[in-house]
């Protein structure tokens, strides 16, 4: 039987588009989201735009003020560190659970994603790099077979990717570039325990990089 891709609904299409624009920094924090303007720009009616913004608010990407004004949510250093901690708990649990189920096919896909990841960064293509980097972890987590864990992780990753929607030479990329490369080498050598330990260290290094960052509006607290 021939497989086919189910087309996105208008709401799903708008959610995906706005989520991409937010995580890529094309819609910066504080941007007011107006239904009519977005509908006109995206070529849809107001209803799917409103539904999409409601979903993005549930994901923490949009803030809704008491007067119903919707803005792209800001991200403080404190909230960023909290997100990193949550992502670490979910991702490391999924990685540790899936690593023993990896096949040669999985390893080949990991190598492909890592090549795409580093290549995109070299080109300064932050959006492609973010997607490839997220897929690298997803391949291992999904080998665990726990789809609920991956679903929760996806929501957190979307928000964390906003921290990486910056210049491709940012120090925050370094833990992932070096860490993913070393994890992949360990997996290809058959050192699964070593790969898990190195994967966990990525989050320690990334958290330290976030702590070193000076976030907008927090200069006085440094």
Automatic annotation (TrEMBL):
HTH gntR-type domain sequence ranges: 8-75
MF terms in GO: DNA binding; DNA-binding transcription factor activity
InterPro entries from the UniProt entry: GntR_C, TF_FadR/GntR_C, Tscrpt_reg_HTH_GntR, WH-like_DNA-bd_sf, WH_DNA-bd_sf
Pfam families: FCD, GntR
Gene3D superfamilies: GntR ligand-binding domain-like, Winged helix-like DNA-binding domain superfamily/Winged helix DNA-binding domain
Keyword tags: DNA-binding, Transcription, Transcription regulation
Name recorded for this polypeptide: Transcriptional regulator, GntR family
Source organism: Geodermatophilus sabuli
Phylogenetic lineage: Bacteria, Bacillati, Actinomycetota, Actinomycetes, Geodermatophilales
């Amino acid at each position: 039987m021939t497989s086919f891709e189910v087309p996105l609904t208008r709401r799903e299409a708008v959610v995906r588009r706005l989520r991409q624009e937010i995580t890529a920094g094309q819609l910066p924090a504080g941007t007011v989201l107006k239904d009519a303007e977005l509908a006109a720009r995206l070529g849809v009616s107001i209803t799917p735009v409103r539904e999409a913004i409601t979903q993005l608010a549930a994901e923490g990407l949009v803030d809704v003020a008491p007067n119903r004004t919707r803005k792209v949510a800001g991200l403080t250093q404190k909230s960023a560190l909290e997100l990193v901690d949550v992502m670490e708990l979910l991702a490391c649990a999924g990685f540790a659970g899936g690593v023993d189920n990896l096949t040669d096919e999985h390893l080949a896909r990991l190598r492909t994603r890592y090549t795409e990841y580093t290549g995109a960064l070299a080109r300064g293509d932050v959006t492609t790099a973010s997607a490839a980097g997220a897929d690298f972890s997803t391949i291992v987590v999904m080998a665990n077979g726990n789809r609920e864990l991956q679903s929760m992780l996806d929501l957190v990753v979307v928000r964390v990717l906003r921290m990486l929607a910056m210049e491709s030479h940012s120090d925050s990329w370094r833990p992932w570039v070096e860490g993913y490369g070393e994890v992949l080498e360990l997996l290809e050598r058959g050192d699964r325990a070593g790969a898990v330990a190195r994967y966990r260290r990525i989050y320690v290094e990334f958290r330290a990089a976030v702590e070193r960052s000076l976030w907008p509006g927090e200069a006085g607290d440094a």
